[in-house]
Known about the structure:
By secondary structure, this protein is an all-beta fold. The protein has no helices and three strands. A three-stranded antiparallel beta sheet has the order 2-1-3, with no helix packed on it. It is elongated, with a radius of gyration of 14 Å. The relative contact order is 0.34. The mean pLDDT is 88. Zinc ion binds next to loops.
Amino acid sequence: xxxxxxxxxxxxxxxxxxxxxxSDSCSGWMREDYSFETEPTCPLCHAEMTKETRVLPKLS
Length: 60
Ligand SMILES: [Zn+2]
């Protein structure tokens, strides 16, 4: 997932609520909209997850 200075296909980015893994050694995260549990665990390491806001490409 790389973005270049290419204006041909601008990607609209919006602030998105995501669940982020609390483990320092893990970069797991998921979009809140894609999680079906109120307090999901990390799909990679099964640690607790915490909500945070990231700027992500808008889903069509
Ligand atoms: Zn994790």
